Amino acid sequence: MNKEHGFEPVYDKTSRVLILGTLPSVKSTEQGFYYGHPQNRFWRLIAELLGCTKPSSVEEKKNMLLSGGIALWDVIKRCDIEGSSDASIRNAEPNDIMRILSAADIKAIYANGSKAAELYNKLLLPVTGREIITLPSTSPANAAWNFEKLKEAWSIILK
User: Fold this and answer.
1) How would residue 88 be classed by pLDDT, with cut points 50, 70 and 90?
2) Whole domain around residue 10: which residue ranges?
3) Residue 101's domain is classified under what CATH number?
4) Which residues of 97-131 are buried (b: 16+ CB within 10 A; e: fewer)?
5) What pTM did the predictor assign?
6) For residues 66 and 11, what is the distance between their CA atoms, to the nearest angstrom?
C-alpha cells in the first residue's frame, strides 16, 4: 500500500538535535502524531532524559521536544509499506530534511532504529553530507532492549 507521511516536522530555530524515524506507524497515523503506539517507549524515554513528566497531548509533546532543543521528523515522505513493517518499505521518497537543517543549528542527527539510519544513508546523506548516529529503536518490537538499556544508549542526545 502506498503511504504518504502526513505529519509536519517538529522544530524551531533553537533545535540542536534532530531525531529521525522511518515514517509514522498505523497507530501513530490513527493518533495523529509521532510514536502513537501505547507500547512505544519514545515519549517516556525523552521525558526521563529531559527530566520532565511524560507528556500526553500533542501540544505537550511538541513543547517538551522544543524546550529540550530536539527536532523530530522522519526520513520518508512517501513509500509502499505493509502495515507498520519497516522491513516491507519499498520505493521510499525522502522528506526535505534541508528544511530543518537550514532553519536550525543542528549539532547531531540521530536515527530511531537501524532502518531509519539505513534509509537516511541511502536517501539523505548524499543531500546533507551529514552523518547520522544510529540509536536502538524505541519500538515495542525491539524487545531485546529494556527501558534502562535504551535510556543509557539514548542519553548521548543530551551531550
Assistant:
1) confident
2) 2-158
3) 3.40.470.10
4) beebbeebebeebbbbbebbbbbbeebbeeeeeee
5) 0.94
6) 6
